[in-house]
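In line with agreed milestones, the collection of sequences with tokenised folds has grown. One record among many is set out beneath this paragraph:
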Amino acid sequence: MDDIKENLDTKSLLNFISEAGMLKRVPRSGWSVLGIKDAESVADHCFRCAVIGYVLASMENVAPYKILLMTLFNDIHEARITDLHKMAQRYFNITEGEKKSFEDQIEFLPDSINKELSEVRKDYNIQESQESRIARDADILECLLQAKDYSEHGYPEAVKFMEKAPDFLITNSAKRLWNTAKNMNLNDWWVHLTQFTR
């Protein structure tokens, strides 16, 4: 009996991992408004959210584990319902759709994983813990940085995505990073790496 359960758990885990891979093929739909044909994927966004979340955790002197879980799994439901931009969300109960698809995704996972992911998502949605606020800031900051990156690569309309979002940043660290980022060229990091030396 344990062998059967172990095989079921293994298959459920692999199904979940495979489904997460779908996020590599789901584009972030908001950028389509700007005419960006090869916009970032949801997986691209989640990866940099996790990096930002880790950095913010360090800056805020908070343990990063829960923040990393929140940033990595915050959009996992989009493997099933895709990424709906703000205009589309006006016509759907997106909160219910996200909740239902996430619950279905983790239903057959081992109890320990199901429990942890459920608790982390609930924590994120309530936005009362410092970890949840940092994870949300990471999400917002990632969008801001991506908009700035697109604006620097020839999509001037992307600056419209940067108008209101900074007002939603909560942590001083996220505000500090954005205040620096908005006044610099985000592509400067690689320039000195390409300079010829004698």
In short: The chain has a mean pLDDT of 94. Residues 62 and 130 are 8 Å apart (CA to CA). Residues 2-194 form a domain with the Hypothetical protein af1432 fold (CATH 1.10.3210.10). The chain is about 60% helix and 0% strand.
